Amino acid sequence: MSKNDYSFTQNRELSWLRFNDRVLEEAEDGSVPLLERLKYVSIFTSNLDEFYMVRCGSLYDLSLINEDYVDNKTGLNAQDQLDAIFDRTKFLNKRRDNVFKSVHSLLKEQGIQDLDFNDLTKSETKFINKYFFNYIFPVLSPQIIDIHHPFPHLLNKSLNVMLTIKDKGKILYGLIPIPSSLTRVIYFPNDEMRFILLEKVIYEYVNEIFSNYNVEFKTVVSVTRNADITLSNSQIDEDEDYRGYMKKILKKRTRLAPIRLEFYKYSDPALTKFLCDQLNIEKNQVQISNTPLDMGYVFDLYDHVEKINELIFHKLSFNPYYPKIQKTVKEGNIISQLKRKDILLFYPYESIEPFLSLLKEAANDENVISIQITIYRLARSSSVIKYLLEACENGKDVTVLIELRARFDEERNIHYAGLLEEAGCRVLYGFEEYKVHSKVCLITRKERNKIQYITQLGTGNYNEKTCKLYTDLSFITTNQAIGEDAMLFFKNMAISNLNGEYKKLLVAPFGLKPKLIEKINGEIERANNNRPANIIMKMNSLTDIELIEMLSKASRAGVKIKLIVRGICCLVPGLAGKTENIEVISIVGRFLEHARIYCFGTGEDTSIYLSSGDLMTRNTEKRVEIAFPIENPILQEKIIHILNIMLNDNVKARKINDMGEYEKVIRSIDLIDSQNYFMDDDFSVNEEEEIEKESFFSKLKHLFKNYD
C-alpha cells in the first residue's frame, strides 16, 4: 500500500488530545466519587502540560530545523500540527473549565471549599492577613520591568503574578514569582476543610507589595517550555561522568524555548502583546484558563481530607482496594516454589509482594551468584534498591542497567545510580540513541554444580507505588531457555551489542518488529487458506506506520483483529477495503491500563507475547524493549480470560469509530466494568486446580517410571 495513503490513519497528536478528552469524561461521570473526579481534572491538566512540554516542544524544534518534515499518517508539517493542537486545546480547556466549575460547586456542598478572597469570613481574613505578612511577604521577590530591570526568565510551569502598573503617568509592568518553597494550599484553623490557594493570596496583596505604584491590572500567568532535551555523547566532556552530564542537562529543561503562555481567568491585550514579544510566541499560543494553572495541589488536598475527615473522604473517594496475594504462591521459600511452577502476577489486582520476596530471598540465598536488573522508573522509597544493596553487601554480583533518561524521573534515577555505585554494584547506562525500556531481572544460582536461572520479565516498572495504580503483568519463570536469553541480553547490553540473537525473547530495536510482522503474516496466510485467523493486541499506543499497514493488510485478507489501545491510536478502524475487520476499544478507569499483550491465532495454535513496548516507532525502533512468550497453557488461559473480559467491557470502554472518534460501547444487557470485575476476580482458582491436576499426573508418571 502506498505510503501516501492517509485514508485509514490519523495524526498522533490529535489522537492523543482525543484520549485526554476521554480522561475528562471520567471527571464528568456522576458515578465516579467527587474527589476522584477532581483528581481526573488534575490528571487531564498534568497530561496536557507534559504533552505541551514534550510533544509540542518536539514539533517546535522540527518546525525550526526541518522544513521538509511531514507526518507520515496525515501529510501535515510540524507547524500545521502545532496550529491544530493550539486550536483543539482551546476547546478542551473550555470543557475542562466547565467540569472543574461543576466539581468545585459539588465539593462545596460537601464542605470542601476552595475559596476566593471574597468568600472569607472576618476571622479568616484576619488570619490570612497575619499569615501573609508573617510567612509570605518576607520571601517574595517582586520586581518591575524597565530598562534597569530587564524581563526575567520565567521558569517552566512556575506561577507568577503579573501586573500592569502606572508610575507618574507611565505604564510599567511588574512581576511577583510565586515561591515554590511555600505551602500551596492554606487551610483555615477553624475549619480545615476550607482553604485558599497561595496565588490567590499574593494576587490580593499586590497593592501592598507595589505600594508606591498604581496597579492598573493584575493576573496570574505561567509559561510552559519545551522539555524535549536531545542528548548527545559528543557533548560530554572527557573528564565528566554520565551522571554529572545528566545533572547539567536537567538544569537546562527549565530554560528552554517557551511553547505556551497561560493566564488564570484574566488577560489584557497590552500585557498579552508585551509577554508574547518577550517570550517570542504567537497569539495562538496564549490560553486563558478558569481552572488553576497548576492542579498538582489536588493530590495534597486528597490526602488532607483523608486525615481531617475520614467519613467525608470515604464518601467522596473510591473504596479502598488492596492487591491480593496470589493463592498459588504459598508462604515460605519462593525459589523452591518456582522450581515447580511459573508465576504470572496481574497488577494491581495481584500484589507485587511475591517478586519483592523473591528479590529479598535471592539477596540472602547462599546459592545465588548474581542479580542483574534493568531499571526505568522506581518508587521514591524503593524496596527493589534496598534488596539490591543488601545482595551487594552479602557478596552477590549485582549489575543494574539504569536508564537515566526516564523522562521526569531523571533526578531520582541519578540518585539511585549514585547509591548503587557507592555500594559496589556494577551500574550501566542506556545507549546514546536508544533508551533501555525493558523490564527484566535475572537471578543466577549455582546448586549442585549446576547453573540455574530465575527470570522475571514484565510489562511495567519495578515501582511498588505505581503497581497499585497501573495494570501490568509480571512473569517469573525458571525456564532454562528464557534464562539463557536473559543472560545473553545482559552480556550484550554490557558490550553495547543491540543485534544479539535470542531463542525466545524478541528484543527491539532490531528483533521485535520483524517477528511481529512475521506473526501477522502467519495470520494472513491462515486467512488466505480459509482457516480461522485472529489477532488480539493490547497496548498503550499504536503509531508505527509499518505495523499499521500490516494490520490493514491483514484486515483486507479477512483476519479478525481486536485492539485494546488505551491512548494514541493512529489507525482508523471500520473502513471498507482498508480496516473493516479491525475493532479498536480504549479503557479508561480507576487504574491506568499499562500491560502490553500481543496474541496471534486461535485454540492450540495461539501464540502470546507480553512486552514492555508499545507499537510506537519509538519503542520498535528507538528503544531496547523485550517481548517474551507465555507458553504455559494455564497462564495462556489466564491472559485470554483477561482479554475477553476487557473486550466485553461496556462501562469504561469506548470504541473508536470510522471517523477516529471515541463513542460509547453498546453491547449486551449486563453492564461489565472490566476493572471492577478484576477487583472481585480470583484468578488463582483455575490456576490452582490446574496445578493440582498437573501435580497429580506428574506424581503418577514418576511412580510408573520408578516401577519400570
Q: Could you describe the 3D structure shown?
A:
With 708 residues, this protein is α/β, with parallel strands linked by helices. It has 3 domains: 12-316, polyphosphate kinase like (2-Layer Sandwich), CATH 3.30.1840; 334-504, Endonuclease Chain A (Endonuclease, Chain A); 517-681, Endonuclease, Chain A (2-Layer Sandwich), CATH 3.30.870.10. Helices cover 40% and strands 21% of the residues. The strands form 5 sheets. A 9-stranded mixed sheet has the order 18-26-24-23-19-20-21-27-28, with helices on both faces. Strands 10, 11, 12, 13, 15, 16, 17 and 22 form an 8-stranded mixed sheet that branches. A hairpin with a 2-residue loop joins strand 5 and strand 6. The protein is globular, with a radius of gyration of 28 Å. The N and C termini lie far apart (62 Å). The relative contact order is 0.08.
What tags apply to this protein structure?
708 residues, alpha/beta, polyphosphate kinase like, Endonuclease, Chain A, 3 domains, eight-stranded mixed sheet, 28 strands, 21% strand
User: Briefly, what CATH class of the largest domain?
Assistant: Alpha Beta
Spatial sequence of strands, sheet with the most strands: 18-26-24-23-19-20-21-27-28
What is the percentage of strand-forming residues? 15-25%
**Mean pLDDT, rounded to whole units?**
92
User: Helical stretch count?
Assistant: 21
CATH architecture of the largest domain: 2-Layer Sandwich
CATH superfamily of the largest domain, by name, is Polyphosphate kinase middle domain
Number of domains: 3
Shape: globular
The major β-sheet equals: 9 strands, mixed
**Number of E strands:** 28
